[in-house]
Specification:
Number of strands: 26
Number of domains: 2
CATH topology of the largest domain: Fumarylacetoacetate hydrolase, domain 2
Helix content: 10-25%
Number of helices: 11
CATH superfamily of the largest domain: Fumarylacetoacetase-like, C-terminal domain
Strand content: 25-35%
Radius of gyration: 22 Å
CATH class of the largest domain: Alpha Beta
């Protein structure tokens, strides 16, 4: 696990005033990465770091002489429209850049005049997927979600026998992962009613969101060389918010015997910012497994895992319907969960994914699976919240939902905070459901 250092000092303040407000996601203790450009200027995309309401243009900062010469090779990778080459450089390089940025952005820093000219307001920026995602794997790490969904289909035996022994996952489609703000059309697929003789091709009627955490791989491993558990997080660059949109009626017809296919491949949404694992160090918690549950096999268990393998990351789902938008109403929160509810940790996902010799690559993305907590208010999908569509949720202005309707906007948010550290946030993952296209 990463140790605390001077970049985590809760008393640090920045000469960028907006980074010192209580409501910012991006104080100086955060410094997440994104790929951006100024909207409407025809510029190339490049890497930036968030500070308050601004973005540090790392290419401009390098050219302005803010960084020492020895950091030039690493900084040149940040001129590119994806972070993969920087991700491949490893945690020592990521940490060194973070430290220099922190020292340059703190109050009284001699570089402030040079760096101020390299700031771009976030309100003037547009973003793209921060990494070239070669492979995407979606896990199933919330036992509450697995149990709630299992009860809908197997009331007497909701958890399959392997769930408590092995991190369950499937390989998904990376080409349809888009950055926050990329709206999508309701998908078509085969639907079959329980009393129908044959399926039909129609637009999805049971469209759902899934509240997930995205995990970006940094430095990869050679094929045939498994990553050991206690080195697993050395290979993780950082976390983001992830909405794995799901067509439940398409899924119900197609998922046996091989699992999700068209029900998951039409759209997924990531937040533009990647919060590094180093920034998350103050928010680590003990990971544990109830004593009456099967304990992990040795390759998935260690002292370090038990003493800091979880991340205390609050997760929220908001919805804004078309009617709410027309009336000028703010989005309404409909779920509050936490990433520390994971039955399987980040390091366990990495170690298990590679134990067969699978080679992970910089920019690969893991989804945590739907992050549901133990209470009805903490479930991360409408499938659970409405008990399979049988019990609609009521929204504060009088509308109700079993599943998503055209015009609905779903927004995921996340932040970390505790008594010894300031709040840091992840921005948002936001998209609106558009009507189905003709097929």
């Amino acid at each position: 696990m990463l140790n605390l250092n001077e970049t985590h000092n809760p008393s640090l303040r920045s000469w960028v005033a907006s980074a010192n407000t209580n409501d910012t996601d991006f104080p100086i203790q955060n410094l997440p990465f994104a790929i951006f450009r100024r909207a409407g200027h025809g510029e190339s995309y490049r890497a930036g770091v968030a500070i308050g309401e601004h973005i540090v243009d790392l290419r401009a900062a390098h050219k302005a002489g803010v960084f020492p010469m020895e950091m030039t090779p690493a900084l040149k990778t940040l001129y590119k429209p994806r972070l993969n080459k920087f991700m491949a450089l490893g945690k020592e390089t990521w940490s060194a850049l973070r430290l220099h940025l922190s020292n340059s952005l703190k109050e009284g820093a001699p570089q402030s005049a040079q760096l101020e000219a390299c700031l771009i307001p976030q309100a003037q920026a547009e973003y793209k997927i921060p990494a070239r995602i070669g492979d995407y794997t979606d896990f199933y790490t919330s036992i509450h979600h697995a149990t709630n969904v299992g009860k809908l289909f197997r009331p007497d035996n909701p958890l399959l026998p392997n769930y408590q022994w092995v991190p369950i996952g499937y390989h998904g489609r990376s080409s349809s992962i888009k950055v926050s703000g990329s709206d999508f059309h309701r998908p078509h697929g085969q639907l079959k009613a329980p009393d129908a003789d044959a399926p039909v091709l129609e637009p999805c009627k049971r469209l759902d969101y899934e509240l997930e955490v995205g995990i970006y791989i940094g430095e990869g491993n050679e094929i045939g060389s498994p990553i050991k558990l206690d080195q697993a997080e050395d290979h993780v660059f950082g976390l983001c918010l992830f909405n794995d949109w799901s067509a439940r009626d398409i899924q119900g017809w197609e998922y046996q015997p091989l699992g999700p296919f068209l029900s998951k491949s039409f759209a997924s949404t990531v937040s533009p910012w990647i919060v590094t694992m180093e920034a998350l160090a103050p928010y680590r918690q003990n990971w544990d497994r109830p004593s009456d549950h099967p304990q992990p096999l040795p390759y998935l268990d260690s002292h370090d895992l038990r003493n800091g393998g979880a991340v205390d990351m609050q997760l929220e789902v908001y919805i804004q319907t078309a009617a709410m938008r027309a009336e000028g109403m703010e989005p309404e929160r409909i779920a509050l969960s936490n990433f520390n509810q994971s039955y399987w940790s980040i390091s366990q996902m990495v170690a298990h994914h590679s134990v067969n010799g699978c080679n992970l690559k910089p920019g690969d993305l893991f989804g945590s699976g739907t992050m549901s907590g133990p209470n009805p208010e903490s479930v991360g999908a409408l499938l659970e919240a409405t008990v399979g569509g049988r019990e609609p949720i009521m929204l504060g202005h009088g509308e109700k939902r079993t599943f998503l309707e055209d015009g609905d906007t779903v927004i995921l948010k996340g932040h970390c905070v505790n008594d010894n550290a300031p709040k840091i946030g992840f921005g948002e993952a936001k998209a609106t459901v558009l009507p189905a296209k003709e097929v």
